[in-house]
Structure prediction request, 545 residues.
Amino acid sequence: MKTKIIEPASNAYQYPLLIKSLLLSGKRYEPGREIVYGDSVRYDYQEFYKRVCRLANVLTNIGVEAGDTVAVMDWDSHRYLEAYFAVPMIGAVLHHVNIRLSPDQISYTMNHAEDDFVLVHDDFLAIAESLADKIPSVRGYIQLCDDGNAQDTTLNALGEYENLLSAADSQYDFPDFDENSVATTFYTTGTTGNPKGVFFSHRQLVLHTLAMAGTLGAYEGLPLLRSDDVYMPMTPMFHVHAWGVPYIATMLGVKQVYPGRYEPNKLVKLFEKEKVTFSHGVPAVLQMILACDEAKKTDLSGWKMLTGGSAPTLGLAQEMAERGILFHTAYGMSETCPLLTATYLHKEVRDLDLSDQMPMRIKTGIPSSMVDLRIVDPEGNDVAHDGEAMGEVVVRAPWLTQGYSREPEKGEELWTDGWLHTGDVGSIDSAGILQIKDRIKDVIKTGGEWISSLELESLISQHEGVSEVAVIGVPDEKWDERPLAMVVSAPSAEVSPESIKKHLQTFVDSGRINKWAIPQDINIVTEIPKTSVGKVNKKLIRELY
Prediction:
């Protein structure tokens, strides 16, 4: 194909897409807006810019160079937000350490990333000390102390964060460099083998930020984050850049509230005190919010929520509707930066009562701008767009990870035939709305039929006595697999396996599911195992049963 190429002027500026370009607009539009950390820190965007410059100077002074890797072990904080910008803006790579992994896995990821320096909060000092001899690449540590008083440590400590910042210059001339330079890395919380390292360039993060800002702010059918909103994450900042929202919030000059360690009552208090309007989190976290004591006496109406990571059940959705929470569902994964799709509500749906909107709000949604998405069968052929035919979700977008760090064979598998393979089973209807049915490995194959564990979970969740539910397939000599359900009862509720089977029989009678979908075993438990980021840990459940 022949195309016309325009030759630029020899002295034209070739504008690289770098994270530094996202930092400037916030202080231009809303210089007096606040960034808040719990009950202890608040400052405006002008001060935020100075602190980013100070941190860049601190890092440069201790010897961080372009291409080095700087790890962060912290709760969600203003410090983490400063590192989101300062580290990649000097050409280094920011490693988001998943502090909820086991010590052995933390050690593995830090060695695999070849971390050079570490910013470590007091709460993780003991872990860092125990692992120091196992991570020989690390040259020094900066201590992060909420009270400003650095604890004694056996680490090669280079100073306390605030003391170092206060002594540093508040100006920094951030350089231009190749927009394809790696900006961030972190590790998947996969359920098999060691965590896999994904990485993202400046170009990918800028494009993701611009696209997601438009998706969450430009449409009346998806009005989640605009310049006058107040943002508080409930997804860890180490998990897929807190879904990329801190970059958007900073670009828009939105008031940002960082809660530190997640504790449901504290989150609700911050919501009320700081007038939070938008948050995001996995369904398990939202369930904990609704169940906490503070929520029971707080008006939650108008709180806009984005949920993802795992499918929200209709039961959870209806409970949020009863509390006046305006929630949408999004879909993505660690490898996709993460945004792929989000729930979009047409006007006729928005005009319905909130409870009647919930079946649409829990759908996975439509692809975001610049996302190409297909549902394919095992031979790579597109399935029918009838909302019923199922296949694997494969995607393309300009911000998807290009592979796995130092594991090229796994990257080749991820990108089979030039499409990123998500490992998720879904269907798509004639209106282009995606519905994730299950993970390929979690679909229950019984008697030649596929049963969606997610659909079963959603149906069981509608039982009034159910608080949480997880469904897996367990081996069966006759049927290959049969469903097994773990159920947590709602507070003060009485629920039994027989009552749940009777509840599911109504969906069999209506033709929604077949009789083989009713779990043979239903176990009433006090807790369902979760991963480090709050997802139901079905691998562990399968091991248990």
